[in-house]
Amino acid sequence: MLHFRVPAPAALALLVFQAVVVVLFIGWHSHITPPTSDSNTAPGGKVHVLLVSSWRSGSSFMGQVFNHHPSVFYLMEPAWHVWGCLQRPGARSLRMAVRDLIHRVFLCDLSVLDAYLPIQHNVSDLFMWSHSQALCSPPACPPPFHSHTTPQITDCAKQCNVAGLERAEAACHTYTHVVLKEVRFFELESLFPLLRDPSINLRILHLVRDPRAVFRSREQAAAALQRDATIVLDGKAASSDTQTRVMQEICRSHIRIYDTAVKKAPDFLQGRYKLVRYEDVVRDPLTEIQRMYDFVGLEMTEALQEWIHNITHGKGKGTPSEAFKITKRNASEVSQAWRTSLTFSKVQQVQEVCRSAMSLLGYRLLNTEAEQKQLDLDLTRVEKYSFTWLTSKSPKD
Ligand SMILES: *[C@@H]1O[C@H](CO)[C@@H](O)[C@H](O)[C@H]1NC(C)=O
Ligand SMILES: *[C@@H]1O[C@H](CO)[C@@H](O)[C@H](O)[C@H]1NC(C)=O
Ligand SMILES: *[C@@H]1O[C@H](CO)[C@@H](O)[C@H](O)[C@H]1NC(C)=O
């Protein structure tokens, strides 16, 4: 088996060591506080990672960063099934169903998906299943598909589509890390029961991106995002300003999540949350990804470093593509594409509804169109951002 199997005492020692390293070296930067107790040690030292983000914020890419790790069982958007199946308007009314689904999936109990799948289902009924390396490798994928190289998505789709989810479940138990990527959380309170569950060792990675870039990307994928937009806006998404209002909700959720995790974090959330800005990952992918791996206790390998370099130095620009396609793109170009393609009046609209979130997350507001087009003007404020980290740890907050 390829996966890491670490004996429990060693895993514990590793965890303690890692916590110390994290606190000493990067704690100040990413406002990780030491866990108040290490009571939360899931069976087998398993770590559960929830990658929380919003649509068009680089979360598919970030998910791939975990998906490619040999110790990770990765699923993309399991809550897609909940939102698609339960015809109730409003993210709020669906959040407990989403939370319960995530909880069971973290424990490798995929039967929770039964409610949302056809009676006779195959693994191919899972959203974006063939993008999950774990589902495309043994033991989830039966012989003869035993490739030790990265399985191609099309080969996987042909050869690994087994009936039922039992193989996937069994596979899930063999990995040290279960990573789920979700764009359907707008708060953290609903996750408190998972944080209190001793069989779950949760790490929350909160990925944010410049709202102006998200807005531009959403406009290009508006049709594909329509159904979700309706749910975000509690069923009221017919008007022309849908995108702006969705952005407003997303920006509000960033503030809400940050406040819960940093400003008024309950004990059981301490040290379990890390905020990541997409732009920082684009600027220095290896450093930022290393920090994320450290945070969740995954080791960096040479093959992964090479893959990360490849995927962030592709040739394609941020051109409209299929809504969920993960392609090799020039990350710095994609990151800046909105500055030439979004009208200044739309930039102003987004800034209007996202002002507080942008200030909190260190995204600089534009005052003129000339500033927008001046591409060497860096809009991610490193100093302000660090300052935010430091003050957020002061006892007054
Ligand atoms: C489900 O998997 C079985 C093989 O286990 C296959 O014969 C069948 O065609 C698949 N069905 C669908 C709808 O993919
Ligand atoms: C990175 O790209 C090079 C050149 O295209 C290729 O030979 C190599 O296999 C790639 N490595 C990984 C890990 O994807
Ligand atoms: C990616 O885009 C940046 C900014 O336009 C450019 O400087 C760089 O050369 C590009 N890299 C590749 C590999 O095309």
Quick rundown:
This protein is α/β, with parallel strands linked by helices and 397 residues long. The chain has helices at 8-30, 59-67, 79-85, 91-106, 153-159, 166-172, 192-196, 211-220, 222-232, 242-263, 278-283, 285-296, 302-312, 331-336, 338-341, 344-361, 369-373, 382-392; strands at residues 47-52, 72-76, 177-182, 202-208, 273-277. It starts with 7 loop residues before the first helix and ends in a 5-residue tail after the last helix.
Largest sheet: 5 strands, parallel
Mean pLDDT: 80
**Run of helices and strands:** HEHEHHHHEHEHHHEHHHHHHHH
How large is the count of helical segments?
18
Rg, nearest Å = 20 Å
Say what the CATH topology of the domain at 42-108 and 173-373 is: Rossmann fold
Determine the N-to-C terminus distance. Answer: 47 Å
User: Which band does the percent of strand residues land in?
Assistant: 5-15%
CATH class of the domain at 42-108 and 173-373: Alpha Beta
What is the CATH architecture term of the domain at 42-108 and 173-373?
3-Layer(aba) Sandwich
Point out poorly predicted stretches: 20-39, 316-326, 383-397
* Subunit arrangement of the protein: single chain
Q: What are the main properties of this structure?
A:
five-stranded parallel β-sheet, Rossmann fold, globular, 397 residues, alpha/beta
